[in-house]
């Protein structure tokens, strides 16, 4: 999962989200580096906590299948539901980044109610926070600790995210389109927060908390120091949503 410094800005009538990538190993094992005949590794994955619902397992398998396709589309990775767990056959290059593959990918847009330097060590990130409750979270670089309001926009409000290369600058970027209801929520949120800060929280970490300068009523554009692989990875995660389960290797 990509984590970086993200900022909202407006240039004329264009609205953009700016992501400066902090860390992503996913691009390092992208399809351009795959090797024909690479061996597949089998991994068994179980849900943390109580016995999962079958529909949740099916949904998790579908999302993992999409994520695996970014590592090596030339090999047929598979994710199957086997009883109360998942069985994954994937290239070893992908399995070596299992933590990233299993990152929940839960996206929240929250109002910043208060922000200050952390008192000592930042609390550990939690990816299972309640979107309808206030939370405390830290910036990805540990520079600020935030008291955040309930999430007004979440990952399911994203309709589609697409990676593309800017034809003039040659830089890779991600375009985000919201669902009809999601667009209204995002527009309403930015209207309410003009002059205030909006936190974008990913898996319990605030990746940015910009001050909103004006109402945003269109698609979002994510630009920054992307490679093709890292832009596609972010677009894939945003398009296919968060994992419905917290998974671990058995």
Task: Write the topology of this structure.
Layout: E1 3-11, E2 14-23, E3 40-47, H1 54-68, E4 78-82, E5 85-91, H2 92-95, H3 98-101, E6 107-116, E7 135-138, E8 145-154, E9 158-165, E10 172-178, H4 180-192, E11 198-202, E12 205-208, E13 220-226, H5 228-240, E14 247-249
Parallel strand pairs: 2-13
Antiparallel strand pairs: 1-2, 3-5, 3-14, 4-5, 6-8, 6-11, 7-8, 9-10, 10-13, 11-12
Q: In a nutshell, what does this entry contain?
A:
This protein has five helices and 14 strands.
Quick tags:
Alpha-Beta Plaits; 250 residues; Gyrase A, domain 2; 5-stranded antiparallel beta sheet; alpha+beta; 2 domains
Could you explain the architecture of this structure?
The structure is a single chain. By secondary structure, this protein is of the alpha+beta class. The chain has two domains: 3-27 and 105-242, Gyrase A, domain 2, CATH 3.30.1360.200; 39-101, Alpha-Beta Plaits. Helix content is 20%, strand content 39%. It has five helices and 14 strands. It has helices at 54-68, 92-95, 98-101, 180-192, 228-240, and strands at residues 3-11, 14-23, 40-47, 78-82, 85-91, 107-116, 135-138, 145-154, 158-165, 172-178, 198-202, 205-208, 220-226, 247-249. The protein has a five-stranded mixed beta sheet with strand order 1-2-13-10-9. A five-stranded antiparallel beta sheet has the order 7-8-6-11-12. It is globular, with a radius of gyration of 18 Å. The protein starts with a strand and ends with a strand. 35% of the residues are buried. The model is unreliable at 1-7 and 9-36 (pLDDT under 50).
């Amino acid at each position: 999962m990509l984590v970086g410094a993200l900022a909202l800005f407006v240039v004329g009538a264009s609205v953009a989200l700016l992501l400066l990538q902090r860390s992503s190993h996913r691009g390092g094992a992208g399809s351009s580096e795959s090797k024909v005949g690479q061996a597949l590794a089998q991994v068994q994955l179980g849900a943390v906590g109580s016995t999962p619902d079958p529909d949740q397992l099916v949904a998790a398998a579908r999302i993992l299948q999409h994520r695996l396709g970014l590592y090596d589309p030339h090999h047929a990775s598979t994710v199957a539901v086997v009883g109360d767990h998942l069985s994954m056959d994937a290239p070893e290059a992908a399995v070596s980044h299992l933590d990233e593959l299993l990152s929940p990918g839960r996206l929240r847009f929250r109002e910043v109610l208060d922000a200050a330097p952390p008192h000592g060590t930042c609390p550990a990130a939690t990816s299972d926070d309640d979107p309808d409750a206030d939370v405390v979270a830290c910036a990805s670089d540990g520079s600020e600790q935030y008291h955040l309001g309930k999430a007004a926009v979440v990952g399911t409000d994203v309709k589609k995210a697409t990676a593309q290369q800017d034809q003039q600058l040659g830089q890779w970027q991600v375009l985000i389109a919201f669902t009809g209801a999601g667009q209204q929520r995002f527009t309403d949120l930015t209207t309410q927060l003009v002059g205030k800060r909006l936190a974008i929280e990913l898996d319990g970490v605030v990746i940015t908390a910009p001050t909103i300068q004006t109402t945003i009523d269109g698609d979002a554009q994510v630009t920054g120091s992307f490679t093709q692989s890292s832009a596609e990875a972010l677009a894939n995660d945003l398009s296919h949503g968060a994992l419905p389960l917290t998974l671990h290797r058995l």
